[in-house]
Amino acid sequence: MRIYNKINEYWYKFFVVGTFCAVSTISYANFNCELSISNEWTSGGTANLSIHNNGFEAATWATILAEFPEGITVSSSWGATSVVAGNQLHQFSAENWNASVAADAVATVGFQYSNVSGADIATAQLSGDCKNTENRPPVALFTTTLSGYTIMLDAGSSSDPDGDTLTYTWYLDGELIIGPSTSPTGRPTVSKGTHDIALVVSDGELTDELTLTRTQIYPYNPTAKFRVATNGLTVELDASESFSRLSQTVNKINAYEWDFGDGNTGAGEFTNHTYEASGDYTISLTVVDDQGSGTATRDISISSGPNTPPTVNIQCETGILYADNFELNFGYSTYQMSCGAGAEDAEGDSLTYTWDLGDGSAAYTTLYGGFIHAYAESGTHTITLTVSDGVNIVTESKDIEAVGNGYPPVGELNCVADGLVVTCKATATDADGNVPTLLYTIGGGAYGAIYTGAGEIEYSEHFKEAGEVRIVVYVLDSNYGVQLSQWLTLEESAPATSCEYVVASSWGEQFQGSITITNNSDEVVNGWDVTWEYTDGSTITNVWNANLSGTKPYNAASFDWNASIQPGESVSFGFNGANGGDTASVPVLSGVICGK
Fold first, then answer.
1. Sheet strand arrangement including 279-289
2. Which CATH class is domain 333-402?
3. Helix H or strand E encompassing 9
4. How far apart are CA 91 and CA 126, in angstroms?
């Protein structure tokens, strides 16, 4: 009988109360939600959301979502906090005082709205705790960003019109790589090439899928470069300027493949070829490493007659280089002389340029024609350029007027590596004597640290991973910035300590675990802490023998009585927790003490 009365009471309110300014009514679970207009004017009005508990016991509501037609916006609310949750989607969140609704009672939320388009508010869709009886599917959206070998996935823009919690599942070329997970982000490793990345979002009942095609270009292909020298019908080729991106210090190119443009081919870093007849030819070089190939081409003219000397036309101008670093509050400016050779070669031979800068500095040899130089002393300087095409040599001189900068500082950099820790010392002096020297480094290590000093600096930096690193230090005065650099190879050293996470037992939705920290070194460890995070929603309920803080991630630190770990010894702490999945998960432990 009570059920019968409840049903009849519901229909009575639908037809009688509902016909008085009711514009949207939806029932879900224990709640019947009704939107009604209180006052209305040309450009807007006020309205109420009535949240009726149809159940036989008190129930708690948390969120009501209202999707308004285009042109309607909410300017203020009472009885709930309100925020814009998406395009035309507004979220009303319960206040503490009206979140709990007694059986057959009503909680009321009011709001003021503007209507700039004359839209019909009666078409508003209510969801959330007043969820549609007919579930609406989620919408899958995501972005990708390439970062080295990994690709950063972000599906945070995916949404659900009913406000449901979403799970995210990722596929790479049809193979599952992540999920299902409640986290909208991921960072999988992706091999070089073109891939289909698919995202499936689910609200627990309905799904939506989006597939994007992305091309992974890392590691980059090698770069092909070569020089040409002709002598009659013979061409000499030099590919030593080609390079692989796989290493900064070691040549990783496996093959050099030549096409001479006359139907003949060759191989090798250095080679030569004799043509049967004069003419114009296109030479192609392809270099290959473990990740791919790169190609360069060059047009040449071959003649059986004598090689034509190159022509030279020196052009120079004075400029000022301004360098400012507002973060470190310093700057310098340098007067620079910039000169170009203006050289041409009729056969297309590669040219070598050697400059005498006329101030006693070392001869400057370049493959690409020009130079930029800061003179220490002002006045007239005679510069001399020598150009060679491999057969002929041409020399030309020119007088220039230079503005002096004084003498640049000089420095020395010495770095040593111990595992992933790099320790450096840099010193510098200035021949002018009256300008202090500032040294600083922007490290390539884990924390991007900046160090400054006058005349000398010493510092250490802990890098994240093994491999080749380049340490850079800049020596500065008011007119110069001189770069010091050193390459180092970092190798992982055995961790001084190690950590082990063990699930001791699991029952129902509960589990018990422990973490053991072992001192593998010859020295006493004084103080320890361990960090971990569960990806399946598991939580820690209590812990013993450690001081626990945080949740995402958790951090457990030593007490005074168990902070010291003798060489070869271990300490452990235990905990109880609640499973986030079907079984107890084993997270990754991190922190310095765990060697991560």
1. 265-267, 255-259, 279-289, 292-302
2. mainly beta
3. helix 2-12
4. 10
Please tell me the predicted confidence (pLDDT) of residue 117. Answer: 83
Distance CA 564, CA 461 (A): 26
Q: Which of 179, 197, 189 is nearest to 151 (CA)?
A: 189
Strands (E) across 463-496 are located at 467-476, 481-490
Q: How is residue 401 annotated by DSSP? A: E
At residue 166, the pLDDT reads: 92
Q: Domain extents for the chain?
A: 2-128, 143-216, 227-302, 333-402, 410-490, 497-594
CA distance 68 to 90: 8
Q: Does domain 2-128 have CATH number 3.40.50.10070?
A: no
Average pLDDT over residues 546-563: 90
pLDDT tens, 462-497? Answer: 777 778 888 888 888 888 888 888 888 888 766 678
Please name which of 207, 183, 166, 160 lies closest in space to residue 65, comparing C-alpha atoms: 160
Question: The domain at 227-302 falls in which architecture?
Answer: Sandwich (2.60)
Name the residue type at position 134. Answer: E
Q: Over the chain, what is the mean pLDDT?
A: 83
Angle of CA points 83, 86, 92, to nearest 5°: 30
**Assigned fold of 497-594:** Immunoglobulin-like (2.60.40)
Kind and range of the H or E run holding 2: helix 2-12
Two tokens, residue 109: 């939320």
- DSSP annotation of 43 reads T
Residue 594 φ/ψ, nearest 5 degrees: -95, 10
Extract long-range pairs of 244-253: CB within 8 Å, 24+ residues apart: 244/287, 244/289, 245/219, 245/220, 245/221, 245/291, 246/219, 246/289, 246/290, 246/291, 247/468, 248/468, 248/470, 248/487, 249/468, 249/487, 252/222, 252/289, 252/290, 253/222, 253/287, 253/288, 253/289
Q: pLDDT digit string (tens) for 49-74?
A: 988 887 777 888 888 888 888 889 88
Band of pLDDT at residue 25, cut at 50, 70 and 90: very low
| Range from 122-136, 139-153, 158-172, 283-297 carrying the lowest mean pLDDT | 122-136
Query: What is the b/e burial string over 432-451, where b = at least 16 CB atoms within 10 angstroms of the residue's CB?
Result: beebebbbbbebebeeeeeb
Tens of pLDDT along 212-244?
999 888 778 889 999 998 888 999 999 998 988
Q: Categorize the per-residue pLDDT at 312 as very low, low, confident or very high, splitting at 50, 70 and 90.
A: very high
Q: In the CATH hierarchy, which top-level class contains the domain 410-490? A: mainly beta
Give start and end residues of each alpha helix (H) in 293-408: none
CA atoms within 13 A on the CB side of 426: 29
Residue of 573, 577, 575 whose CA lies nearest to 585: 577
Distance from C-alpha of 322 to C-alpha of 594, rounded to nearest angstrom: 47
Which of 3.10.450, 2.60.40, 2.40.128, 3.40.50 would CATH assign to domain 143-216?
2.60.40
